[in-house]
Amino acid sequence: MQVGYRYRLYPTVEQAAALIEQMSMCRWVWNEAVALRRRAWKVEARPVGFGELCRALTVARAESAWLRAGSADCQQQAVRELCAAYGRAFQVRKSTGRAVPLPGPRRKRDGGWRTVRYTRNGHRFDSDGGLALAGVPGSVEVRWTRGLPSLPAGVTVTLDSAGRWHASFTVGVCEQALPPAGRVIGLDLGVSAALTLSDGQQIMNPRHVRRRERALARSQRALARRQRGSKNRAKARANVARQHARTADARRDFQHQATTALVRAHDVICVEDLNVKGMSASARGAVQQPGRKVRQKAGLNRAILDVGFATIRSQLAYKAVLYGRDLRVVDRWYPSSKTCSGCGQTRAKLALTERVYHCERCGLVLDRDVNAARNILAAGLAERQNGCGERIRPRPPRRAGHRSAKQKTRRATAGNPLPQGRGGSQSIQTAVPMPTSGLSLRISGSCRRTHP
Ligand SMILES: [Zn+2]
Description:
Helices cover 40% and strands 16% of the residues. It is α+β, with helices and mostly antiparallel strands.
């Protein structure tokens, strides 16, 4: 399995300058290659492949002393990346029929190129722990926070908008199955509680963006007041970028800690297949038919995106493979919130403001999200029982006016401030005691179905 390992780099001033120069060259090569491809298509209606672009690069390097001073390896990687980007765009066009844009030129002003890729030939590990890179004097200091499990095929050096350097390695790792934990879990992703577990635990949404909102607004105001093109403006911009970088770091840390803890503690994890893009769509509407509660929806969208559902899902997926766990994805159309986890009765309607699920048939009273998580668990375990490879619940046909995404709501937070610390597990108060011991692996045995 291929996994990314990332380390912080501390280049000297000269090394940083050399790396930035390499980035400029790669950007130039990329843009020239884009122009060449476009010209060939427009004039001769023929595609230009990797081989032809590389030959053009060789000619350009022979003519330009500036390009020759840089690493040929990195410049060829830029061509390779461009070809891969074209390939991906054509693939999407072919499979979906959508007219996705083809790769275009990259501008320095947009921060469009802050990456240099080196192949195996372009980098070397020094005995003193440094990283020697082609075209960069000396060896760059690396903070090895953990060891690399195997030799990487290449390295990508990046400069982020907060001015930090990183080296990313893609390495092959062996899957290491963890000993059985003897537990299964259903997960409901939400906004107030980022994760609700079927055993009643909740992991709150740390709301990274909101916590830094004021500091960010302050630095953005400072940026707006600075004169265009001035050095103070550049400093203010770096300050804003640093705020964003801190938010992203905190979010990534939260996601990794939560997903690793979940994968370690459970054999089977059931999640819902959520359409994040649809869920966080704007409520703006059209000019003829303006939407309602646009601002409220925007705030909710910010909260949805702040949790990073998609990242949590993809982290759970790869960590499950890595540690020999089983991740089961429940169909998006499964009414996990509206169904009673006690008797299976499905309610026709459930308002977003109803935080506690009341069942009229069996009298179950349970936190809305815990009820959903339990349903997701049951559905996930049932999915597996269908050995014929058929979906147990076929996707219903789309009806007119049917929402393309599930709704997520945010609990009213007035008088209930979110925890200021990092998002730890918290117990919640539910109207009925939670039979935690009932959620053992025995459940899967009792749900078994027989097929003809
Ligand atoms: Zn019920």
